[in-house]
Design a protein that fits this description.
By secondary structure, the protein is an alpha/beta fold. The protein is 59% helix and 10% strand. The chain contains 27 helices and 17 strands. An 8-stranded mixed sheet has the order 8-7-11-1-12-13-2-16, with helices on both faces. β14 and β15 form a beta hairpin. The longest helix has 42 residues. The C terminus is likely disordered.
């Protein structure tokens, strides 16, 4: 790295990929947009999606919230009945030394302390200051109705001070909203002068013209808005081009949030564009946080900027990782293909609520219908056959969500639900006709398909409505809780044919030995696939599988032992599970699991408690508002009823054991996962469907035996 380092960050509130598309079609494509790396950025804050909350999150590297009334002011501005500089002196007891003051900084710090994510406002600016990086903020995004000066959140230090100028870079223009617009020449000249004066600079421009325009859109005629929209984008492009041509170092275009029209259309990922220095031009952007090229998290920004100034990343308090910026790669990413993938992401996000609400409601109705058919029409052979097909269709439906994910991103929400339903029923009919044990076969097919997808880069999970959602930002890689619960249940129930074969062909001692080997093999395979940092990366699910193993060992070997021995075995087993989970993170990219272990080993008990608190809050929120709670309540109630009824008509020993293990897995998932309600619901659904199916089959054989006995 050279001795002189300069970063210019152009913050454009309200910028969406709608505007980027306009630039690609009408702007200086070859000269400006044909250069630099680009990506979509998740900007979800802790709380309501807004410019302020998103900027606080970007500046702290963690999900955060702002405080009411937050703004930056120049000393002479009138607020609270006095000059801003005087108000700060009165509230803080010290005369501010910086150009800009932030009267509500202490309230923001207090808000940070109450957050589950433990953000620290001013931490990033303080580190830059300690590393002799000159920080400066230019501009504002004030509208006709409110003030918006949030860019200085990126530069303030722990005292809440920052250098910069809110006004002075605007020129009068009655055609623009509020009667003024940014003066590009004056702005760029200021950046050039600052860079000449300091060897290291971090300059943030709050380019508010687009924000002011979109905020006024509802008051404007379509023709007036469209004309002004074009002028505003051309002005922004001119600012970016001149900054790229005339200033030193790198230029970053950052959108902290998208305008209302894009937000309403569910296009909520913000654009990011990075122009490197001429000899160091970037081609692509990769994020370790998302494990994808072209998709990043807002938590990656501050740590990347700190790394640019050669600051040790361990000093940055963030949930993200430094971006990998590749230069002179063999082929520059194509924006058209990038947009096609982005549209798939937006399609899943837009249709997820409709697809899942319809699907989950359908599963609930199916369970209730199957229960009634089993209890009221158990003597009717044709109805038992139909019930079996219905249950098998439910077990197969997650497989269809996985393997047809590439089709799902092309269909409407209701069209895809109908497609899944039809495919599940047809495949159930085929399995029932050609496979002796169709329920275990369905579980094996799902287990195999998901394992292969994890090994090959989870291309199907990324696009599935039961996978994770980059727009929500809860998970970007691995296996999410919807599929995790199904994966565990499928892994358990697929072993039944082998258990049945062992029991029928081997004496008791061989059966005990081989069944133990089988269980240990399958369970450790599941733990590896669920826990490994480059595969499932799901700590709660992997620990749940470990608890299933402990329960199996208790049932097989320790059931009649003393309570102290059982407790000792459980304790040692728990320690070994945590050790295995820790070892499976070695040699992998930084994950949320490895960060949790780092916090645990460093004695950061507060952060561990915050993680637990977030898990409890998330589960309670899901239980109150999510459609998954319908399936959770229904499946848990019906499994309880079935356990009571099977005291009279019992399953065989192996089936009963697997059913109990499925119940244990579901309860463990409920307690250990941050969205445990979802994982518990899906795993219990599979457990209930298969237990019902086996119950129907066992009644058939009982009746056949009875007929033979009577004769």
């Amino acid at each position: 790295m050279p001795d002189h380092r300069h970063l210019t960050i152009v913050v454009v509130p309200g910028l969406s990929f709608q505007e980027i598309d306009w630039f690609i079609r009408h702007g200086e494509r070859d000269w400006l947009w044909g250069k630099g790396g680009f990506a979509a950025m998740n900007v979800k804050p802790d709380g309501q999606y807004s410019y302020l909350n998103n900027m606080v999150s970007i500046s702290t590297g963690k999900r955060a919230q702002g405080v009411q009334g937050w703004n930056a002011y120049e000393h002479h501005e009138e607020i609270e009945g006095g000059r801003a500089g005087d108000i700060v002196t009165q509230w803080y007891g010290e005369v501010p030394n910086s150009d800009l003051v932030h009267p509500h900084f202490h309230l923001l710090v207090d808000k940070d302390s109450e957050s589950n994510y433990s953000p620290h406002s001013g931490h990033f600016g303080e580190i830059l200051k300690n590393n002799d990086v000159y920080r400066y903020t230019i501009g504002h995004a004030d509208t006709r109705h409110e003030q918006a000066r949030y860019a200085s959140l990126l530069t303030i230090d722990k005292s809440g001070e920052a250098n910069g100028m809110t006004f002075g870079f605007m020129k009068n223009d009655r055609h623009f909203p509020t009667g003024e617009r940014i003066d590009t020449k004056r702005l760029v000249d200021k950046i050039v002068n600052i860079q000449k004066s300091y060897p290291q600079t971090f300059i943030v421009i709050e380019w508010g013209d687009l924000f002011r325009l979109t905020e006024e859109q509802s008051y404007m005629t379509n023709e007036a808005f469209n004309n002004q929209y074009k002028k505003t984008l051309l002005s922004l492009e001119r600012t970016l081009r001149e900054a790229y041509e005339q200033t030193l170092g790198e230029v970053w275009l950052v959108s902290p949030f998208v305008h209302n029209e894009a937000y309403q259309h569910k296009n909520q990922l913000s654009p990011l564009w990075i122009w490197g220095e001429e000899e160091n031009q970037y081609d692509s952007i990769y994020s370790n946080t998302t494990r994808r090229s072209g998709l990043i998290s807002h938590t990656d920004l501050t740590v990347t900027w700190a790394e640019y100034f050669d600051v040790d990343k361990s000093e940055i308090d963030t949930a993200g990782s430094p971006l990998k910026l590749f230069t002179h790669s063999e082929s520059r990413p194509n924006y058209t293909s990038f947009k096609e993938r982005l549209e798939e992401i937006n399609h899943v996000f837009t249709g997820r609520a409709k697809v899942l609400s319809s699907y989950v409601s359908g599963l609930v109705i199916m369970l209730i219908a199957a229960s009634l058919m089993i209890w009221l029409m158990e003597k009717n052979v044709s109805w038992r056959e139909r019930t079996e097909i219905l249950l098998l269709s439910g077990v197969l439906s997650p497989l269809w969500f996985l393997v047809t994910s590439f089709i799902g991103v092309q269909l409407s929400a209701m069209g895809y639900v109908l497609f899944i339903t039809l495919g599940s029923v047809v495949s159930a009919l085929l399995l029932k006709k050609f496979v002796p044990m169709p329920f275990s076969a369905a579980c094996f097919l799902f287990f195999l398909a998901l394992s292969i997808d994890l090994l090959t880069g989870y291309h199907m999970i990324q696009r599935s409505f039961l996978g994770y959602d980059p727009v929500i930002g809860a998970r970007y890689y691995g296996i999410g809780n919807e599929f995790a619960g199904i994966y565990i249940a499928s892994g358990l129930f697929m072993v039944y044919p082998l258990l049945d074969h062992f029991r029928k062909t081997q004496h008791e001692q061989s059966y005990q030995r081989n069944s133990l080997i089988l269980f240990m093999t399958v369970i450790f395979t599941m733990i590896i696939f669920l826990a490994h940092g480059s595969l499932g990366a799901n700590a709660g699910a992997s620990l749940s599988v470990g608890i299933v193993l402990l329960f199996f060992m208790y049932h097989r070997y320790f059931k009649k032992r003393s309570l102290w021995i059982i407790a000792g075995v459980a304790f040692v087993g728990g320690i070994l599970l945590l050790l295995l989970l820790f070892l499976l993170q070695f040699g992998q990219s930084d994950t949320h699991i490895s960060r949790a272990f780092s916090q645990l080993f460093s004695g950061d008990i507060t952060e561990i408690l915050n993680i637990i608190e977030r898990k409890i809050e998330m589960n309670w929120k899901i239980f109150r508002v999510s459609y998954w709670s319908q399936l959770f309540i229904t499946s848990y109630f019906l499994i309880g009823v079935m356990l009571w009824k099977t005291r009279q008509v019992a399953l065989c020993k192996d089936q009963a054991l697997l059913g109990h293990l499925g119940i244990v897995a579901s309860i463990a998932l409920l307690l250990l996962n941050d969205s445990g309600i979802i994982a518990a619901a899906t795993s219990m659904f599979i457990t209930l469907c298969i237990s019902y199916g086996w119950s129907i089959q066992s009644k058939k054989f009982v009746r056949t035996d009875q007929v033979i006995s009577d004769k």
